[in-house]
Structures are given as structure tokens and as C-alpha cells.
Amino acid sequence: MPGMTRTVRQRPVDSGRAIAAQASAQSSMAGGSPRRRRTGIGVLAVLVGGCLSACGTGLAPAAGGSATVAGPIPSGLESFYRQAVNWYPCAATDGVEKASEKTAQASASMTAAATASAQATATPSSESATDATGTADSSEETDTATFSCAVITVPLDYANPKGETISIAVKKRAATGGHSQGALFINPGGPGDSGVSFAERAGNAFSPDLLSAYDIIGFDPRGVGSSTAITCSSDDDSSSSPAEPSVSGTPSAGSTLSAGTASGGESYEEWAESTRQSFQELSKQCGSNTEPAALLDHVDTVSAARDLDILRALAGQEKLNYLGFSYGTYLASVYAETFPGNTGRIVLDGAIDPSLSLAEQGLGQAKGFEQALRTYVDYCQSSSGCPLSGGTDAGVQQIRDLITSANSTPLATGDPKRTVTGADIVTALSEYLYTTEQNWPPLTKALDQAINHRDGSAFAASEEQDSSSKDDGGGAFQAVTCLDYPVEGDTTTWAAQYEQAKREAPIFADSAVGMDLVCSVWGHNGTRKPAQIHARGAAPILVVGTTGDPATPYAWSKSLAEQLDSGQLLTWEGNGHTAYGGDASCVNDAVDAYLISGTMPKKGLTCHGNE
Known about the structure:
Protein name: Alpha/beta hydrolase
Shape: globular
Number of helices: 20
Helix content: 25-40%
Keywords: Hydrolase, Signal
Radius of gyration: 23 Å
Number of domains: 1
């Protein structure tokens, strides 16, 4: 989460916080591009129409245009809880465009493609003009889902509800069973990831039983995507201005910090100064391009939780049913603490421990990835074609040696203009470790080429794939994090923390420091301190923890389940980030049973592998 890795739903269904998001900003400002590794449905595009304004349940306006409101209404917020909600058919565009607009765009694309095809026929030597005009449309997968969209108004500042307002974009995937038992709100993580996009991928993310039972409702939290969003570059300066730091769903994008022995020779002090300058500039850009500018001071998770309660009420749901991953578990925990009486069936997969500081989270993640790498080495050495010899320690050292060597002399690829550095390799390792072992064979192949042939082509190809599927959350990651957590320590403290991380997690130590420094120059800071969340009076909350999760270590899920008065832990002995929606039927069945019928799994249930 804040600290290092942006935690998002990443495994077989998609969407953490990017390892060393601050380092990615430096890479981006130097011309690099953030990238994201997607598996399964991560890049699935679903082209469907929507439904009319009150199809299914959830956020449906009552007759006469007044919304059906459920549950108590906080004083002073009556107009928001009772606002009319106007639904319209929408397509799967990773946004909330009307279906008619998508149809018009598709028609224009087809016309352009036809023209390009004719030109290509007339001029055989011209380069693949059709590829530039519409192959993405022709290759997009389809689904039988029905989507509808709406835009909800909420206060910018809940302390001043009569002041400025902002918009929250919502997308609903209608239940496939013909009769919905209600609305299930979802969040993929981040902060900065789009729930609107996640709703489009629900067909591949969730079980058929869950899709049949519920209307799935995704929303872009304040500051994100199709909602009133933080914007850090204008349309006309995106090519020349410093790029936004990566908020990709994997440990990051571009490069990790270059202060470490595994990454390069730059000193911590040099890195700290360049990071200060980079984020001071980024903060200025976000402030100049975000409208309203005050949004940067009001994208904290507490405000997002209050937005969620308005959405719940407008959905006609007396209780919030919710499935959240990674950072989405923190959002729901804050919701349960704020509105315990409004909680329904809540499942939190890959939990954030709200009692940890930024530094504690960063170190925990670095150690998590280091342990996950050791697990990979064991897997590799028990498989064919592994280039790593000796035991686990020896194999890890060979990877460290490769990283150091590639930083000194980058690996060649098939493209003479493209090389692969040690930082690129660390990024790729992080991305693969986000997934289960079913996705590890390509990593073994890439390491074999790199170690035995000094060929970085496989790593470069992985980077290009990640770049093509990246999902940038703008400055939302930094903005939310710096409002949710206070700055602790100073440069001396952070340097000492880095030295500790180098001892405990040498390869991923660069990811263990930085966000306190970033927030110290960000200029939009909160005062909320890390603390346990108990949510007294909340309905039972199911917390799912994966023993081999590097981004949200298992200890965090265990801790959150113990903190919550009504928490119960479900353990999956597996690898990768988050569990539900993968191949572990034990996990999927337990989550479905609670969300659909309200039946909690037996206490202490542990699921093993793909059982």
C-alpha cells in the first residue's frame, strides 16, 4: 500500500501499490513509461451495450426521478442521499461513455479502417495502416453482460457539504440470473485503480454463481478515472512535461530506486535529493491541472468511504455488500469503522494492516517480495530448464549477480536501440511474483536467456506487454497516500531504514523507503495516524490472506482479522497477490457462500493450493 507497492487486484483476475512509486516517477521523468503486468482478464475489453435507466437493482431511481434511499441519512447530507439518479446504457470502454457514443466511435473507426485499407491496397509499401486505425476494436473480446452507468454528486469537503461538489462515476453489470438479490460493490485496489474498469472485467474475475446472484457495481473513487480526477498533465504538454509516477498494479514500473547494491551506484543522498525535486515538480503540475485544485486536499480514504455510503443508500441497499482487494480492503475497513451499522456481507482479500506506518509497510513488502523470490528459486530448481544452480541461497545470489552485472553492462536485445538494465530485471521479477507459479515458466526462460546468453529480449518483451496494458491512476496514488498517512522521520531516519532494508531484503530494499520523503514535499498532507480498526458493531467480515502474497503479506491479513471485532480469517496456502477468482476452488466456494447466502466458512479454515 502506501509506502511502496500500490496494491491492486493483480492475479488471475487483475487489479498494489507500485513498488517504489517514487522511483518510477524519476524513471518516467527521464523518459521511461510506467508499465503494468496483467494476467488473465487484466486487459480484457468487453464490448456490450447497457440497459435502460432502472434495469436490475442498485442505484435505480424511483418513479418521478427521486432516488430510492435506504438506511439512515447523516445530518446535512440529505440532498446527496436523496438525489435523483439517472442511468443510461453504456459500453465497456473503461469509462462511462454512453453506448450511443461508443457506437459512433466504432462507426468512425470502421470508416477510417476502410479508408486505410484502400490506401494500403493502392500503396503496398505503406506500413500497416490498418493496424493504426482499428485492430484493437476488431480484436476486443465480447461478453453477454449488460452495463449501465451513472454519475453521482458528492461533497468535495464533507466538513462543508454546502460548498463545492464533485462527481463519482459508477458502472453496473446486471446480474445474469434474471433476478438480482442486490448490489455487490467492488474495488480492485490502488489507490488509483478504476472500479469502473474492474466492473467490466467481472465476467472473468468472479464466479458464475456470484455474477448470477448480484448486480456488480464498480465505481471510480474520488480523484480517479471517470470521477472528478486528479490530473497531472495537460493535453498539450503530456509529451514534454514530467510524467506522473507509476501507479501500475505491480512493483514498479520503470526502475526501483538506484541507491542499492542490486540496482546501481547512486548514493542514497543523491537519490533523495533528485526525488525531492521530481515530486515537488509533479505536485506543482497536479495542482495546476486538477480541477478543482482543492481536490488534492480531499481524496483521503475517509472521504471515499463516505462517498461509498451515499452510493450504498442510492442503491437502495440498507447494508453494504462488498468485495475488495488490496487497498480496497483498507477502504472497506475505514467504511466499517465509520458506518458499522450499515455493513452487510464484506469480504477483504489481500488485506492492508491499518496499524502500520508507511515505513513498516514498505519494509514488510520488500521482505515479502524477497521471500517470494526464494519460493520462485525453489520452484525453478525443481523444474526443467532452470539456469539457477545450487541451493536456494546460491540461486538467489545468481539473480543478484545478474542484476548487478546488467546495471554495469545492460543486456542486449533484438532491438539495437533497446537494452535491459538490472533495474528492469528487478521490475520484471516483482511483476512475475505478483502471480501464481502457473505464470512463472516465462520468467525461467527469461533468466536462462539473460544468464547463459546475455540476452535480455524476453525481459524487454515482457516490459512492452506491460506497457501496452498499463492503467495509470494519475497522481491519485501519491495524493491519497499522503492524506492517509502522516510524514514520519527525516532524511537521516529514512537512510537508516534503507540500510535495514538492504540487510533484510537486498534485492527489493530499494522499494522499502521513499513515501515518507515523497509526502514531505507533496504539499497536501493529512493528520490521520495509523491505528487499529475494530469496527465495533459491524456485521461479520471475512478476511482472506495468502501465505505467499508479497504485496500484502499474510501477516497483514491475519492482523486485520484479529483487529476487527467481527473479523474472521480464511487462509490460502498459495502464491501471488490475493486469492479469490483463481484456481483455488476452496477459496472461491467459501467466498461465494458468504456473499451469496451469508454462510461463513468454519473458523480457522485453510485452503491448500488448487484444492
